[in-house]
Amino acid sequence: MVAVHQFLASLAPRDAQSQHHLHIRDALRGAGYASDLYVGEAKGEFRAQAQPFRAYCGAPGDWLLYGHAIGTPVAEFVVSRPEPMILDYHNVTPAAMFEAWEPSSAIRMAAGRRQLAPLAARCRLGLADSAFNETELRGLGARRTAVVPIMIDTKNFATAPAAKVLDALSDSRSRGARHLLFVGRLAPNKRQHELVAALAALRTGFDIDARLHLVGASASDRYRRTLIRFIEALGLGRAVTLVGSAAPADLAAYYEGCDAFVSASAHEGFLVPLLEAWHHRLPVVASPAAAVGETMGDAGVRVRRPTPIAVAAAAARVLGDDALRAELVARGLGRLDDFALDRSRERLLDAVASVVAP
Amino acid sequence: MTDAREPVDPGPTIDLDAVVREIEAEARALRRSGAFPAEFERELAALFTRFAPPAASGDLRALIDAAEEHGLIEPFIPVDSQKPAGRFVKQGFAKALGWYHTWLTQEISQFAGSTIRALRVTADRLESLERRLGDAEEQATTIAALPWASDRAAAAASVATVVAGRAPTLKGRVLVARAGQGELVAALSAQGADAYGIEPDAANRDAAEARAVDLLADDGAAHLEAVRRDALGAVVLQGPDLDAAAAGSRLRLARLAYERVGDGGAIVVVATEPQWWRVNEPVTADLAFAPPWTAPTWEFVLGRLGASDVSIDAIDGAVIVCAVVRHRDDENAREATGSVASDLG
Asked: Which of A335, A347, A297, A339 is nearest to A154 (CA)?
């Protein structure tokens, strides 16, 4: 049996990329390949799913599939191995976006970029979760590439919402407030501060009692502190909620209880929360930066220059236009089908079979 | 307002592109209407910058200060632990390895201190250099696009007509580098070109947006660096990046433009006439890094890059140099650019 073993920097619960690689493993095994996970670090209940990458000994006929997203010794290990390799590229955030905020994180990102070139040149097949990422791989010398969207089982989005959060949101909405949501780590590249500025514009120029919920753990303590000061200086302490990392039920409640999903992110390799928003029938307003426009397709309102007033104008239009909201919800559900797990699995297996048969 | 979770019935399909255009128009109208305080968006940005780490501003001194802050490592070994015996175990290690830890942190801090001292000396010298060149640089960057035109929209239309005549079959997007207030982008679009512009000055971009021309916030060379080779149908170079920049900057801009235009595409240089500078903007002409180049100089530079069919059209106060891109192999092009640079010393 041909083996295609996966190598990753880390495997962690509530992480879309970790779920993606578990689905890849299951898909490969289902198609008749042997496949195990080797990681730099495994966390929580996922510890039992993987082995340390240095424990891999190699066997004749093995292939390696390496998922790259940040600078890691795992990349050096994979490059040094003699086995043929498939690279699965999730994009590395440009270090410049973090340098002023978290220099140590920026160094890891820069290392991730440096590691990418030899990986791309050496891989027999480059997988990318968006054409945006695929272009980068090709530019670095990958000869054979394929786009395979991030593999997510959208059935997992159907968690029962937490009643406490949902009730609070419903109560607020019944009193006329409108709730905007963004889900993603608090990070300079995701530009949550632009959403806060847009909220200020929405409340100032559109006379809407709007609220903003930012769900996601902090990737930069400096950015989080700056964001809090910015919110306080604008007098928006009661209108903006920094939720932090949310349990699945709480997250589902935010998706169910809010009126629109908004994004001003400047750099994303895919933006998984769009899929969750569509699943929960939430209309989307987003800047089409990096891979966001490609993931969104025609299932959201694009804000081409995401200035505060432009984002606010788009959000106000979506909040106030019933027909537009219904259309966006319908388009979102249609777009979600494009990322169905079965389809992504099929694309993955076709791509892998083009270089190695089970 | 209905709930989005009601059964989906979108009714007739909505033209989302049209909705986006309506939203953009509404945002522009709101900015003009006084619904927001003057400078609302800039004040929001300034407020955020006030709370951001000084290094986020790109200020060199602030960056060195941040490096200095991170360069000092206290020889303190954390011993707190969530496990009952963990603290005692860590204290044992700290006691045993403390001497080495102290030595190591001192070595790293020494290295950081020396590096930061070198950076401060570099900053001193750089600031001295900037002080000497500062007036000229400031003057150069305040020059408007199409400075010689009394009616910039009419002048842009004239330039677009010349470009359309000289390069009638452009395939691909046309970039107007340093687009000013968007007059030339609008004029080229009116001629049927798929034109877009970049402009680093926010006030110019706002003025362009008011006339429904969206410009990207970018610098000419940086934008061209980010565009892949052969991606553009044509590049139009104009404004202060061309008329008042240092000779090396102009050569670099020309080379980047040449590389980014596909075979058969065009490079168009809209250059102010040196004589116009001397008569109408003598102070600017004196303070600029270098005087504007004459049409023969541009013809020479573009020819050495490999362009063919160079045409020169004169309009009041400026020349329009139009050249067709003929890619030889990259090595030849690089050699040619190097030759131009060395020819000019």
From this structure: A339
C-beta neighbour count of B188 within 10 angstroms: 27
Q: Are B315 and B159 in contact (CB under 8 A)?
A: yes
| CA nearest neighbour of B220 among B124, B141, B307, B331 | B141
Show Cβ contacts of residue A22 under 8 Å, excluding neighbours closer than 6 positions: A11, A37, A49
Using alpha carbons only, give the angle A131, A137, A143 rounded to the nearest 5 degrees. Answer: 105
- Sign of the dihedral through C-alpha A50, A52, A58, A63: positive
Q: What is the ipTM of this complex?
A: 0.89
Q: For tokens 């069919």, what's the residue?
A: B309
Separation CA B294–CA B300 (nearest Å): 10
A with B: how many residue pairs have Cβ under 8 Å apart?
A: 121
B23 close to A (CB below 8 A):
yes
Q: List the beta bridge partners of residue B176.
A: B197, B236
Task: Give backbone dihedrals phi and psi of B191, rounded to 5 degrees, phi first.
Answer: -85, 0
- Whole-angstrom Cα distance, residue A238 to residue B308? 64
Q: Which of A205, A313, A325 sits opposite B4 (nearest CB)?
A: A325
On the 0-12 / 13-18 / 19+ scale of CB atoms within 10 A, A33 is buried
Going by C-alpha positions, the residue among A84, A82, A90 that lies closest to residue A19 is A90
Question: Which of chain B's residues have a Cβ under 8 Å away from the Cβ of A327?
Answer: 10-11, 13-14, 16
Task: Spell out the residues 6+ positions from residue B13 whose beta carbon is closer than 8 angstroms to its own.
Answer: A327
Structure tokens, B180? 């000013």
Q: What are the backbone dihedrals phi and psi of residue A227, each rounded to the nearest 5 degrees, phi first?
A: -60, -45
Nearest beta carbon to residue A101 from set B1, B53, B70: B53
- Sites in chain A below the pLDDT cut of 70: none
Closest-CA residue in chain A for B214?
A: A305
Token code pair at residue A129? 């979760």
> Per-residue DSSP letters for B103-148?
HHHHHHHHHHHHHHHHHHHHHHHHHHHHHHHHHHHHHHHTPPSSTT
Question: B315 pairs with which residues across the strands?
Answer: B318
Q: Give A74: exposed, middle or buried? Use CB within 10 Å, 0-12, 13-18, 19+.
A: buried
Encode pLDDT of B40-77 as tens digits: 988 999 999 999 987 777 788 888 888 888 887 777 88
Q: Which residues of B touch A103 (CB under 8 A)?
A: 66, 70
For residue range A273-316, what is the model confidence (pLDDT) as tens digits?
Answer: 999 999 999 999 999 998 999 999 999 999 988 999 999 999 99
Which H, E and C letters describe chain A, residue by residue? CCEEEEEEEEECCCCHHHHHHHHHHHHHHHCCCECCEEEEEECHHHHHHCEEHHHCCCCCCCEEEEEECCCCHHHHHHHHCCCCEEEEECCCCCHHHCCCCCHHHHHHHHHHHHHHHHHHHHCCEEEECCHHHHHHHHHCCCCCEEECCCCCCHHHHCCCCCHHHHHHHHHHHHCCCEEEEEECCECHHHCHHHHHHHHHHHHHHCCCCEEEEEECCECCHHHHHHHHHHHHHCCCCCCEEEEECCCHHHHHHHHHHCCEEEECCCCCCCCCHHHHHHHCCCCEEECCCCCHHHHHCCCCEECCCCCHHHHHHHHHHHHHCHHHHHHHHHHHHHHHHHCCHHHHHHHHHHHHHCCCCC
Q: Residue A83 has which token pair?
A: 């086995």
d(CA B318, CA B169): 24
Confidence of residue B136 (pLDDT cuts 50, 70, 90): low
- Chain A CB within 8 Å of residue B31 CB: yes
Q: B16 CB near a chain A CB, below 8 Å?
A: yes
